[in-house]
């Protein structure tokens, strides 16, 4: 069984912002696999279904980004998820250009407060991440203003394609393993 978590912020005012790449990717996966809404548990929206015969719990924490760790830790404990082999976090990444993806099997939070909270609550950095590039903040900008902002029309096209690729990458991790997914998607970049 896998727990696939899309990071983001709940509420209409945060829809389509840079920080909601995880939520947007979960939406694509839920649509593709016709996942019924399971309700709200542990301060998170969730639903369950199957990808390639493997049971998957899809989750969107409702705690706001910086407090994502509590809902993730509680859901993982409830479903007896091994973070090192059964947890996949989908997140935005300012170190990647819009349209870029990067899959990692472990690593630090890299300044991402949602990841920092998850690492703190789980007590490990060893879990899979699918990172969706949102671009670096412009010089002189506040980081919060950047990640809570929206994309230009050109970047939005790249990001929409990257979200579809991120959903593909999650499917590949589940069906063929993280190494196969890294080999395929860490080289890809959406092009204009």
UniProtKB/TrEMBL annotation:
Residue sites binding tRNA per the record: 14, 64, 66, 113
InterPro entries: Pept_tRNA_hydro, Pept_tRNA_hydro_CS, Pept_tRNA_hydro_sf
Main localization of the protein described in the UniProt heading: cytoplasm
Recorded catalytic activity of this chain's protein: an N-acyl-L-alpha-aminoacyl-tRNA + H2O = an N-acyl-L-amino acid + a tRNA + H(+)
Any single GO BP term: protein quality control for misfolded or incompletely synthesized proteins
Pfam family, one: Pept_tRNA_hydro
UniProt EC number: 3.1.1.29
Transmembrane segments: none
Active site positions, chain numbering: 19
Keywords: Cytoplasm, Hydrolase, RNA-binding, tRNA-binding
GO CC terms, sorted: cytoplasm
MF annotations from Gene Ontology: peptidyl-tRNA hydrolase activity; tRNA binding
Family membership: Belongs to the PTH family.
Quaternary structure, from the entry: Monomer.
Physiological role: Catalyzes the release of premature peptidyl moieties from peptidyl-tRNA molecules trapped in stalled 50S ribosomal subunits, and thus maintains levels of free tRNAs and 50S ribosomes.
Protein's recorded name: Peptidyl-tRNA hydrolase
Protein's organism: Blautia segnis
Lineage: Bacteria, Bacillati, Bacillota, Clostridia, Lachnospirales
């Amino acid at each position: 069984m896998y727990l696939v978590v899309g990071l983001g912020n709940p509420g209409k005012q945060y829809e389509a912002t840079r920080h909601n790449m995880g939520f947007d990717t979960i939406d694509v996966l839920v649509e593709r696999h016709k996942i019924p809404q399971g309700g709200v548990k542990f301060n998170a929206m969730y639903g369950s279904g199957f990808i390639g015969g493997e049971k998957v719990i899809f989750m969107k924490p409702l705690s706001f980004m910086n407090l994502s760790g509590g809902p993730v830790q509680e859901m993982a404990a409830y479903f007896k998820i091994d973070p090192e082999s059964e947890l996949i976090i989908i997140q935005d990444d300012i170190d990647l250009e819009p349209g870029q993806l990067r899959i990692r099997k472990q690593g630090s939070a890299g300044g991402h407060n949602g990841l920092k909270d998850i690492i703190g609550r789980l007590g490990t950095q060893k879990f899979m991440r699918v990172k969706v590039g949102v671009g670096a903040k412009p010089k002189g900008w506040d980081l919060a203003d950047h990640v809570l902002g929206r994309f230009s029309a050109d970047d939005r096209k790249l990001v929409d394609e990257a979200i579809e690729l991120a959903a593909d990458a999650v499917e590949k991790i589940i069906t063929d393993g993280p190494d196969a997914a890294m080999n395929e998607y860490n080289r890809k970049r959406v092009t204009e």
